Amino acid sequence: MRHFFYAVVAIVFGLLAALGWYVYDRGLTRHWRNYLVHQFRAKGFEVSMKRVTLNPFRGLIAQEVKIYDVHNRYHVLAIIDDVTLGVNYANAIRGKPFLDSIDLRDARLSLPLDLADPRSETVDILHLYARLFFPPQQIFLSRGEAEINGVRVAASGKLINSQAWSYERPLRQSPGAVFAPIAASLKQVRYDNDRHPLLSIEFSGDLLRPERIAAKVRLQASGLHRGRCHIRQIDLAASCRGGIAELQQLDATDASGGELHACGTYDLGTRALSYHVRSSFDIQSANAAFKITKALDDFVFHEPPRFEAMAQASRDSKSGQCVTGHVALASFSYRGAEFRNLIADGSADGSRWSLRHARIEYGGAALSIDAVQGAERLRAALHGSFDPRAIRPFLAAPAAAWMSQFESRPPPELNLEIGGPNLAIGAITADGDARFDKATIMGRAVAGSCPVHIADGVLSVQSPAESADPWKVAYDFKSDEAKAGHE
Question: Do 140 and 158 touch, CB atoms closer than 8 A?
Fold first, then answer.
């Protein structure tokens, strides 16, 4: 009997060993893989897995796991090399939900940038360490760490009512369309001494009430390089709670000591927005490196611009967003024309805007500008010395060529009052005078006070009242024609 018992035990262990070797080497059958897929579906995930094996040290391993859009299996949301599955074997035997956790160790996750095209470029998430627990109707991320295009990311949090997780409708646009340029920019960033940025994320909430999901984000980085842009330090803290997104702080310092400070709030329900930005940052280098806006392409700042802006806006506000700000540019050029000391205060609220105490220098001239644009009326006043060459970069080629025929040393003193429905040259009317000390206009020697008039898109300059030989020169901006003659 003893020998028979030992033989039975040996056979049992042999069968178990053979079964273990088969599961380890060949993997579970399709029936068991489908059973696991149903377990994921119960948690709100639509997945497929090519193979599931049993590792004696790690447990059940699912390989080549794909996560799909629940509305369209052609939309692959993520691809994971392998996943360790935490299984409650007692529940599995009783036929109850048995998937307790998912464990990722040094995994690689691929996210397509275009969900509609499975062959599109992907963002690779490397060195992914994460453990997801699935208590009843919950998803708990105890700690997640990864590297995304050079950025170290750490995340943790808990969501309840996980069975409610689904898309209400198919995505019209892939999130990758927004993330793609950011991902491309991050790939080209270099860091001092491999000090990669750290992004920390904490979240919690109820998936039955997604508007109440709370999150906190913190980004810290130093020694970033891309092109000529060198960012010495970035510190960002933001949160979203109770439908209010808040940028608590954004502090950045460039290599020359310029600084950027920003804070603000946004109500996701009412769309009310408020923010405050103050900057002496080298915006031009940052814009060239990260392609933020094309509006600065024609400018060259010899010193970093200084500006401050504050705004408040609400969806229910009749006037829209109200912005007030201050700008100071020490030295800059626009389309090759050199300007100095631009200082201006302004405001805008959607239906009206104003420019107050603006002053700009060009060569030896300094011009002051005040302007107010109401709902249907513009009023502006220009006073000071004015060099006609200063406006040539803003004009079409024919008008710029005509303006170059004005030569005056020193620059004339200009006093001009402007009115009209808007700033369009064909809409404004203006009256004033330009006082010349010694000048030449289209070959005519001029000295004294010349009346200036703008109407119907035509700018005209007349000879001084005391002139013995009255004359008039004019330029029609609509037809790009210049005229000169005697009065």
Answer: yes
This prediction has a pTM of 0.72
Range with the poorest average pLDDT among 10-24, 54-68, 317-331: 10-24
The three-state DSSP-derived secondary structure of 215-251 is EEEEEEEEEEEECCEEEEEEEEEEEEECCEEEEEEEE
Interacting residues of 25 by C-beta distance below 8 A, sequence separation 6+: 53
**Which residues fall within 8 angstroms of residue 178, CB to CB, at 6 or more apart?**
none
Contact 441, 459 (CB under 8 A): no
Residue 167: pLDDT band (50, 70, 90) is very low
Q: What is the predicted pLDDT for the residue at 254?
A: 92
CB distance 468 to 448 below 8 Å:
no
| Cis ω for the linkage preceding 410 (within 30 of 0) | yes
DSSP string across 171-190: -SS-THHHHHHHHHHHHT-E
Specify which residues 61 forms β-bridges with.
Answer: 53, 84
Highest mean pLDDT among 26-35, 367-376, 397-406: 367-376
Determine the Cα–Cα distance for residues 360 and 333; give it in Å rounded to an integer.
12
DSSP, collapsed to helix, strand or coil, labels residue 102 as: strand
